[in-house]
Design brief:
By secondary structure, this protein is mostly helical. 65% of the residues lie in helices and 0% in strands.
Length: 249
């Protein structure tokens, strides 16, 4: 292993010696030599040079280099804006994209640029972000952001666990039909979830209209009965529930 790969940066001057640094790092990747010592030394002494090496115009490519870079995120985020950093790392290593997204969500769970990053990586955009933030008190805001982005499938999956925030996120973004599907899924998982109260807080006088659209989507007698108990003040919904309850099992 060369002194440089051991982390010895003696005699190097940046940016003049960046080409030499890049050439040796590329050779190490081809030979399967670790880059961790080099990256650690650069992070401590020359973070801007590390940023150029791992996300610059001539950055090292491949999952191995990206995974090594993920070990020095404190230094990299000090040298490169976080949103651009993670987008670039995701493009440089396809096999490590999920690890890049996980790191981004962990370190910046409320960042708006996670929406775009999710779309560039996940087959179901928003899934990782929603899962990672589900226990946070500001989870409703995350659901609204993904609702505005049209991430229906990820939100529906969360609603299917009984959570109501995805329903509100979809409805607030203007996706009425999708919000109704998510609402029915939420009630199927948690029949006693206070869905009517949440919808009323958002829609006000239009609540009865939305709830009545939910009735035909209910999949169990239990969820219909629970909804009936919480919608006695909504005439249209109450009448529809009374009509469909006998046919539900």
């Amino acid at each position: 292993m060369t002194p440089l790969l051991r982390g010895d940066l003696t005699g190097l001057r940046f940016p003049d010696d960046l080409p030499q640094l890049r050439e040796e790092a590329m050779l190490a990747l081809r030979e399967g030599a670790p880059l961790s010592n080099l990256f650690r030394a650069l992070a401590a002494e020359h973070p801007m040079a590390l940023g150029d090496l791992v996300v610059g115009p001539k950055a090292l490519e491949g999952a191995i280099a990206v995974r090594e870079a993920l070990g020095e995120l404190d230094a990299l985020e000090g040298a490169v804006p976080a949103g651009g950093l993670y987008q670039r790392l995701a493009k440089l290593g396809e096999a490590s994209q999920c690890e890049v997204l996980e790191a981004a969500v962990t370190r910046h769970p409320r960042a708006s640029w996670l929406i775009r990053l999710s779309e560039s990586i996940e087959t179901t955009p928003g899934k990782a972000h929603l899962a990672a933030t589900a226990s946070q008190p500001w989870f409703g805001g995350i659901c609204r952001a993904h609702g505005q982005a049209g991430h229906h499938e990820a939100l529906h999956q969360v609603a299917s666990t009984g959570r109501l925030e995805p329903v509100i996120g979809l409805l607030a973004a203007g996706f009425r039909e999708e919000s109704l599907d998510a609402g029915a899924a939420a009630l199927h998982a948690q029949p006693n979830a206070p869905l009517a109260a949440h919808i009323s807080a958002l829609l006000g006088p239009q609540t009865d209209t939305w709830l009545s659209g939910l009735v035909s989507r209910l999949r169990s007698r239990e969820s219909a009965m629970a909804l009936a108990q919480s919608t006695t003040l909504f005439t249209k919904t109450s009448n529809l529930l009374a009509a469909v309850l006998p046919s539900l099992r």
